[in-house]
Write a structure and sequence with these properties.
mainly alpha; 3 helices; extended; Aconitase/IPM_isomerase; Aconitase_4Fe-4S_dom; aconitate hydratase activity
């Protein structure tokens, strides 16, 4: 959903979970091809970043987005009240 919030690109390093997903969604040829180049599909060891942000995913509450735009996000715990 990056494009909806103004991102022009998103990059995710290739890993086993991504290969598993590609295989599970009938894209095994892409998974196999990517595995041959997996060393080139991740950050360089000495890569430098302007900022490093770590997010504890266990502390995030699921949200429902919409309608029509992800800017209208409602935490699951408040969704019942939002429908009233």
């Amino acid at each position: 959903m990056g494009a909806e919030i103004g991102a022009t690109t998103s990059v995710f390093p290739f890993n086993k979970r991504m290969a598993d997903y590609l295989n599970a969604t009938n894209r095994s040829s892409i998974a196999n091809y990517s595995q041959h180049f997996s060393e080139n599909l991740k950050a360089d060891q000495d890569a430098h970043y302007d900022q490093l942000i770590e997010i504890d995913l266990d502390k995030l509450e699921p949200h429902l987005n919409g309608p029509f735009t992800p800017d209208l996000a409602t935490p699951i715990s408040q969704f019942k009240d939002a429908l009233k």
